[in-house]
């Protein structure tokens, strides 16, 4: 199936409650990549099947 990579969108109420585990700062949701972005930590946390994986070891380093 070609939609295997399609991820379930994250719940907006959940997004309001979540913070970066390293900086405790806000997160933004990148729907195209299915990631939660922490600009202060320069990390992108994956969202798999609608579940945010908030482990720093799972985060992808990003640049501003």
Structure description:
The protein has 64 residues and is mostly beta strands. It is built from one helix and five strands, in the order αβββββ. It has one domain: N-terminal domain of TfIIb (Single Sheet). Helix content is 9%, strand content 27%. A hairpin with a 4-residue loop joins strand 2 (35-38) and strand 3 (43-48). It is globular. Residues 1-5 have low confidence and may be disordered. Belongs to the UPF0434 family. It holds the Pfam family Trm112p.
Helix content: under 10%
Main β-sheet description: 5 strands, antiparallel
Count every helix, treating DSSP H or I runs of 4 or more residues as helices: 1
- Estimate the mean pLDDT confidence: 87
Indicate how many domains the architecture comprises: 1
How far the N terminus sits from the C terminus, by CA atoms, comes to 34 Å
- Give the number of DSSP strands: 5
- The computed structural class is mainly beta
Poorly predicted runs are 1-5
What order do the SSEs take from the amino end to the carboxyl end, as H and E?
HEEEEE
Shape: globular
In CATH, the architecture is: Single Sheet
List keywords for this structure.
single chain; mainly beta; N-terminal domain of TfIIb; five-stranded antiparallel beta sheet; 1 helix; 9% helix
